[in-house]
User: Fold this.
Amino acid sequence: MLTGTVEEAGPASPLGLVPGQRVATLVSLTLTPLQITDGLSQWDAQSEQVPCKGHAILFARSIAAVLPEDLSVELSLAVFDVCGAPALTSRVVTEGAVVLVVGAAGKSGSLSAAAARQAGASKIIGVVPTEAEAALLRDPTATAQDEGAEGVPRARINWQSRPRRAGPSPAPKSPLADEIVVADARDPVGLAGKVEAAGGPADVTVVCVDVPGCEGGAILSTKQGGTVIFFSMATSFSAAALGAEGLAADVTMLVGNGYVPGHAAFALDLIRGVPSVRQLFERRVGS
Ligand SMILES: NC(=O)c1ccc[n+]([C@@H]2O[C@H](COP(=O)([O-])OP(=O)(O)OC[C@H]3O[C@@H](n4cnc5c(N)ncnc54)[C@H](OP(=O)(O)O)[C@@H]3O)[C@@H](O)[C@H]2O)c1
Assistant:
């Protein structure tokens, strides 16, 4: 994705942008025509973010979000990068569902846990790989004013852009997860056993890890008739499809499409309204 200032908007453009707005594109740069005019002279080749001068063209079907003034650009970009995950989670989770978030202390995982809470999940089980991440998920500094996603002030939520309206849910002891499981998501039997002990299997499992080999554990930790959202780019279609078949698992498996209408605004609302999610993000982006 890139950030820049809108120079001109075509008269028929449906993106709703006006000249002068600072925006981030929410699509891969491989899909964005970009002419760089400064030869990358401002880049020190040490950063994965590349400052440059140039022009980009967005299409009618491009996605762009206005950069919010109340959040740093780094934080906003980190949120935009994974904003499809909480939006899809919100769409899939129904009232009373048991939701398993694999990689719950990560960016997409923490947002998805907050979205599941707001959508009315009865129990959220968060999987983390280490005790250190478990401690992070329980960060006591987040608990004072943080009531999970129920803490998002209603006035701040743009109901038009939200993927779906949430039902009421109680504030959990941990802001984001009712149960925290420390497990290697690549170990299917070990993961499923620990998830079951924590109140699983899940109605909905959201895979937010950044490593390959987590398909079997996610499938085995999900109820028959349940749904697995594979947001991780490390997911293998063949491992998921053949794994489900091999386990006689009647689960719906969704590829985590990065786009859901209203996804950026929804994720920004969660970041603003759920302090624990914001803290986890700020640790990762260092802002
Ligand atoms: N579908 C889409 O449109 C889309 C868009 C953007 C990103 N993604 C993908 O989403 C995935 C997650 O991205 P993210 O930015 O949320 O990553 P992230 O912030 O790094 O979170 C990943 C989490 O998974 C944990 N983890 C790693 N290995 C694990 C294991 N074996 N067992 C349990 N947990 C483990 C990590 O722990 P540690 O930090 O301790 O390693 C981390 O907490 C990536 O694959 C990314 O490419 C998908």
Observations:
- Confidence is low (pLDDT under 50) at residues 142-162, 164-172.
- Residues 107-118 form the longest helix (12 residues).
- The two ends are 19 Å apart (CA to CA).
